[in-house]
Design brief:
With 343 residues, the protein is of the alpha/beta class. The chain has two domains: 133 residues, ATPase, nucleotide binding domain (Nucleotidyltransferase, domain 5, 2-Layer Sandwich); 163 residues, 2-Layer Sandwich (Nucleotidyltransferase, domain 5). It is built from eleven helices and ten strands. α9 links the parallel β9 and β10. It is globular and about 60 Å long. The model has no long low-confidence stretch (mean pLDDT 95). Zinc ion (ZN) binds next to α4.
Length: 343
């Protein structure tokens, strides 16, 4: 039995997990930092890095103890090496390097996005390559054709904000605190999604990409006069995001022969998002896979699993592998407008 220790600290969740190559999660822990960042309405990198460094050693000890394993029983150490907040990324990566070196185990430097991208295969053994992936998180909003481990073709990305970032900014405007996604979803459940007219940027556009900055500005204009109920703004905003995600995903079907639609990343925890995408897949005669909510938001089981997939395909890293703030899944892809490129 191959056991992988996964370590994650690229944003505001410190996470550790032990996962086997035959898809068993032996133990895992995720500790968020919401209260530390709440006063600032977003993640403060310096606070995040410090908190990761304080908690990660005890999480590693705790997860090993829970599984009844010692570090010598682990076959490989997988740590997120980027992309993310660089101070935080370094915490898990350096811990992983130290453990791998001390125990004489292979190190696997995992791209956090690959963790999200492969996460559905941890819980669904029947999910084969290729699949069309909508990756929607706080930092990314992309459509990818997942062709195999380490083999990604990006079909679309956001030209401004990520979908989760839009949820977080809208929540801040509504005074809901951080993280915004779950708060908006809860408030939206009591609101009328047709009450507040909001734009759907790029809807129906021939361009494959996403855009959410204009939607955020429209929410700002809707909040200011105080003549809409917050729950109606939340519901209308959420529906606008869903409409954009569905429209852009539908467009991407034409770009890929993949017969399965998969959604992953923090925003995939949203029930309205999942329901709309499931319906879209059904209408277009595609299979649909969405990992459980705990596997959508940041965790280390997905990092350990990506490590297991990389190990199984002979991909290990040397101890001098760098931490990377930026690390696209498809390094060869051309840049899009918004990423420092003018249209
Ligand atoms: O994947 P994730 O945990 O971290 C990143 O890699 O970014 O995603 C976090 C993002 C945040 O923007 C958060 O507001 C959003 O996912 N999110 C949600 C929900 N849960 C988390 N957005 C909408 N609805 C949710 N239920
Ligand atoms: Zn993430």
């Amino acid at each position: 039995m191959t056991v992988i220790l996964g370590l994650e600290s690229s944003c505001d969740d410190s996470a550790v997990a032990l996962v086997t190559a035959d898809r068993r999660i032996l133990a895992q822990a995720v500790v968020g930092q919401n209260t530390a960042h709440q006063p600032y309405g977003g993640v403060v990198p310096e606070i995040a890095a410090r908190a990761h460094a304080e908690i990660l050693p005890s999480l590693i000890r705790g997860v090993l103890a829970e599984a009844g394993l010692a570090i010598d029983d682990v076959d490989a150490v997988a740590a997120t090496a980027g992309p993310g907040l660089i101070g935080g990324v370094m915490v898990a990566l350096l811990a992983g390097k130290g453990l791998a070196f001390a125990a004489g185990k292979p190190l696997i430097a995992v791209n956090h996005l690959e963790g999200h991208a492969l996460s559905p295969r941890l819980v669904d053994p029947d999910l084969g390559f290729p699949y069309l992936l909508l990756l929607v998180s706080g930092g990314h909003c992309q459509l990818l054709e997942v062709r195999g481990v380490g083999d990604y073709r990006r079909l679309a990305t956001t030209i401004d904000d990520a979908a989760g970032e839009a949820f977080d900014k809208a929540a801040k405007l509504l005074g809901l605190g951080y993280p915004g996604g779950p708060a908006i979803e809860a408030l939206a459940a009591r609101g009328d999604a047709r009450a507040v007219p909001l734009p759907r940027p790029l809807l129906g556009s021939a361009e494959p990409h996403f855009s959410f900055a204009g939607l955020k500005s429209a929410v700002q204009r809707a909040v200011a006069p105080g003549d809409h109920r917050p729950e109606d703004i939340a519901a209308s905003f959420q529906q606008a995001v869903v409409d954009c995600l569905v429209d852009r995903t539908a467009r991407a079907f034409a770009q890929s022969a993949a017969r399965t639609l998969v959604v992953a990343g923090g925003v995939a925890a949203n029930a309205t998002v999942r329901t709309a995408l499931r319906q879209l897949a059904h209408d277009r005669e595609r299979a649909f896979v969405a990992p459980p909510g705990w596997l959508c938001t940041d965790n280390a089981a997905m990092i350990a699993w990506a490590g297991a997939e990389r190990l199984a395909t002979g991909r290990v890293d040397s101890l001098d592998v760098p931490a990377r703030a930026r690390w696209p899944l498809d390094e060869g892809a051309e840049k899009v407008r918004g990423a420092g490129v003018k249209a």
